[in-house]
Structures are given as C-alpha cells and as structure tokens.
Amino acid sequence: STKTTNVIYHALPVDEFISNLDREKTNDLDKIKNLLQQFDARVESGPLWHITGYDKVMNKCKYLLKNAKNEVYMQIWKEDIDDELLNLLLKAERKFENFILILFCKDHLYDLPLKKYYKHGFEEAKLNEMGSRWISIVVDSNEIMFGSITNKNTADVVWTQNNDMVFLAKEYIIHDAYTAKILETLGDKAKDTLGVNLEEVRKIFK
C-alpha cells in the first residue's frame, strides 16, 4: 500500500501578503544601497581630477571655502587673494576653531585683516625651489585642492577626496604652522641662531 500526503494550500490574507512583499523589497533595496555606497566610497576615495586655468582654480577654491562645514587648512599667496576670497577667509576664520592659514607674500607685506594666520617667511627660497606660486586647501578632512599658480592666467591643480592625500596635505599644512609658530615665538633669538633670514633652517641636508 502507498501512503499519500495531501498538501493543503492556505491563502494568505491580502494585508499579510502585501506586507511580506514590502519587507522583501526593502531588504533588497537595502542590499543594493549598501553595495552602491561601498562602490561610491571606493570611487570617491581614488581619482585625481585636474583643474587648469587661473580663474577655474580660484573659483574652485572659493567654492570649497563657501561650502566648508567644520574646518579649513590652507596655504595661499597674498597675490592670489581678491576681495571675494578675503571675505570667505574672514567668515571661515570666525566660524571654525580648526582654521589654519599659511600666508605667503613675495614682498613680505602680510597686511590682511585676519587674526589667525601664519606668515611663511621663506618665499624667495620656495620660489626658487618650486618655480611658481602654489595653493593648497583641505576642507573638512574630506577633500583637497593643491597645485601650482604661474600667473593670473596659468594655474594647474589637482582636486581629490583620496583619503591618503587628504591626510598628507592636512599634516603638511599643520606642520608648516608648527614651524611658523616656533619661529614667531622665538623672534630675535631665532635670527641670532639661524641667521637674519633664518637660512640655517633650510639646511636640512647638512
């Protein structure tokens, strides 16, 4: 004799059926969202984007300052600061505790109405090394722009959200501030020890 088992199908209430569909759809969408976020994170942390042209570079700089949320670390030459950029720097200085500006000026005329900035002081030597001015800005530990500025027509920078490059650029600016603050604090003592133009500081390979 053969036993047979009857299969009994029971229809789900419509509300329960719809609820199950919604749950499955939500789970699938969550999985897709997680995958897309992981992919987006990999993309955003990697590429370097080139920006060429003085006006485009300065417009990007202003955009970064305008949209900063938490912090700004920056190196810039006074020659490249127009009224609009100065106003953005003043707002950032008032708004953020974590604000560092390293200011360069070919003629050492650091007369800006800012309070929280450091005078670099080695402009001639750096120009000889680099061959041009430059700009660096790190915003919110999330994105950076850095590169060279030859004149009011020619500039070539890189913008990226690469985590490693953001970290390195931020640390570079912070250590520039450390050095500037030490020399500023020492004052004439630094000149007595390191030379009138502090030239001994730069002899790091001897």
In short:
This protein has 206 residues and is an alpha/beta fold.
Total strands: 7
Structural class: alpha/beta
State the helical fraction: 40-55%
Ends: how far apart?
Answer: 101 Å
What is the number of helices?
A: 6
Q: What summary fits the major beta sheet?
A: 7 strands, mixed
* Radius of gyration, whole Å: 28 Å
Low-confidence segments, ≥5 residues, pLDDT <50?
Answer: none
How would the global form be characterised? elongated
User: Helices and strands, in N-to-C order?
Assistant: HEHEHEEHEEEHH
Please tell me the overall pLDDT: 84
Strand order of the largest sheet: 1-7-6-5-2-3-4
Which percent band covers the strand fraction?
15-25%
Description:
- With 206 residues, this protein is an alpha/beta fold.
- 47% of the residues lie in helices and 20% in strands.
- It has a 7-stranded mixed beta sheet, sandwiched between helices.
- A hairpin with a 3-residue loop joins β5 and β6 (143-149).
- The longest helix is centred in the first third of the chain and has 31 residues, at 14-44.
- The chain is elongated and about 100 Å long.
- The mean pLDDT is 84.
